[in-house]
TrEMBL record:
MF terms (GO), sorted A to Z: hydrolase activity
Pfam families hit by this protein: NUDIX
CDD domains for the chain: NUDIX_Hydrolase (cd02883)
Protein name per its UniProtKB record: NUDIX hydrolase
Upper classification of the organism: Bacteria, Bacillati, Actinomycetota, Actinomycetes, Streptosporangiales
Key words of the record: Hydrolase
Needed cofactors: Mg(2+)
Domain Nudix hydrolase, first and last residues per copy: 114-251
Family as reported in the entry's similarity comment: Belongs to the Nudix hydrolase family.
PANTHER family: GDP-MANNOSE MANNOSYL HYDROLASE (PTHR43046), MUTT_NUDIX FAMILY PROTEIN (PTHR43046:SF14)
């Protein structure tokens, strides 16, 4: 829903549920404000609290009818016991198709300007289990809190390539992007007259040869970067994103 520059791909997000039956993979469009996991549960008629495992995020670059470019981020979940069906189904064409996704969705009816974002964040560790965090600079949302390295996925960019780029820019470390940990969403209304909706993908990232963390980007949202021992994280003031991601490692900090 963010205004695109001329020629930039339209952005879409879809959610998919891997099942043990036929069809093996169900799919649906994620509308503004919807949580991808909730959409996946709805596809399978599952209970609102049914456990799901996030399996993958696939970046698809396609053309809508008429030739307009589309960037589609497809978020894949599986229900309990269905995870093994995903590798065999991964090569199949996923629905909804680019043609089905070409139609623009209606804007929220709250009078605010909608801004939509897909972001990729890393739970970044070294071989000793130390955790790499970045400090949000003044003038940006969450200023003064420690954050997970990562950020927005550019149009036409793969989520993993975006994360590796962001880790280098924000911390000076070259990491290996590994397992998808989870995918969640966040919505904040009224910020500067905007309705901001983001889908967050969290990956494990391993820095095999860590060095001193240093910020390489200039005039960006990162003021500092540091390695922390796991026991130090609990005493840190963390961003909402960091608290949500690090909860999957059993780590948390202060608000």
């Amino acid at each position: 829903m963010t205004a695109a520059s001329p020629g930039a791909p339209g952005r879409r997000v879809t959610a998919h549920l891997v099942t043990a039956g036929a069809p093996a993979v169900l799919g649906g469009r994620v509308l503004f404000g919807q949580d991808p996991a909730d959409v996946a549960r709805g596809l399978g008629g599952l209970a609102p609290d049914a456990p799901l495992r996030a399996l993958d995020v696939l970046t698809e670059l396609a053309s809508a009818p008429g030739g307009a470019p589309l960037h589609i981020d497809r978020v894949v979940f599986a229900g309990v016991g269905a995870e093994a069906s995903w590798p065999s189904a991964a090569g199949a064409g996923l629905r909804p198709s680019p043609a089905e996704l070409a139609v623009e969705e209606a804007a929220p009816e709250n009078g605010l300007t909608p801004l939509r974002r897909f972001a990729s964040y890393g739970i970044v560790t070294d071989p000793d289990g130390n955790v790499l965090l970045s400090l949000i600079a003044e003038g940006f949302p969450g200023a003064g809190t420690w954050h997970l390295p990562g950020g927005g996925v550019d149009a036409g960019e793969d989520v993993r390539a975006a994360l590796r780029r962001e880790v280098v820019e924000e911390t000076g470390q070259d990491g290996l992007v590994g397992e998808l940990v989870t995918v969640s969403s966040h919505r904040r209304e009224g910020s500067g007259g905007h309705d901001i909706y983001a889908v967050w993908a969290f990956f494990r990232v391993l820095v095999r040869d860590p060095g001193p963390a240093r910020v390489l980007e200039e005039n960006g949202s990162t003021a500092d970067a540091r390695w922390f021992a796991p026991g130090e994280v609990a005493g840190l003031r963390l961003s909402t994103t960091a608290r949500r991601g690090l909860a999957y490692l059993g780590l948390s900090g202060t608000v």
